Amino acid sequence: MLTKRIIPCLDIKNGRTVKGVNFVDLRDAGDPVELAEIYAQNGADELVFLDISATEEKRKTLAELVMRVAQKINIPFTVGGGISSVEDVELLLNSGADKVSINSSAVKNPQLINELAAKFGSQCIVVAIDAKQIDGAWIVHLVGGKVPTNIKLFDWAKEVEQRGAGEILFTSMDHDGTKNGFANEALARLGTLVNIPIIASGGAGIMQHFVDTFKDGKADAALAASVFHFKEIEILDLKKELKNNDIEVRI
What we know:
It is a single chain. This protein has 251 residues and is α/β, with parallel strands linked by helices. It is built from ten helices and twelve strands. The chain has one domain (5-244): Aldolase class I (TIM Barrel, Alpha-Beta Barrel). 36% of the residues lie in helices and 28% in strands. Helix 8 (207-215) links the parallel strand 11 (198-201) and strand 12.
């Protein structure tokens, strides 16, 4: 049985870690390099860095931040935000990232997934999907959740797998920051439609939510932010709880 992964997520804005609710009302959560080092020491399996306000002029800043983080940690980490070309990915991987996450750019130019997978290998390419329910359907949103599309979550997930994505990071915007649990029904359905790993994101509040997303949502990994940043859940305690629930994790 594959071990389940616990992944702290650092949303970066202007070089600082921030956290909001339903993608808004951001507050400061600390220095990303310090947090990354703490998480690596305290049992995180991977890290995800998302530059949530990325624009072209900030790309260099993010590359420098990636380099600083890479020097401090010994676990894989994924970087996303504003990535729209082979050159962007090359820069980040050369700076020390293990994987990149693409979101809006993949929807606007789906061929980008094929190009990146062909050049760097599927194992490097994570497609992040932000979706919320509108009239009973899960609809993909872009630009940090601000722009709705007419694309349905499950159709898009199948397409990104076919195009070469190695992993899907699915964030339920309805659940994000609410601490009411993950979108397990949607996650379980995703798991029946694709064969690549799915990272659950949005809604972690208590340890039981992680148990539920691995058991009911069939997620391969669970990502969370504020519960880790603000010390509401310690990763090693969480992993012990998962073990007690017969969920295989690396301790």
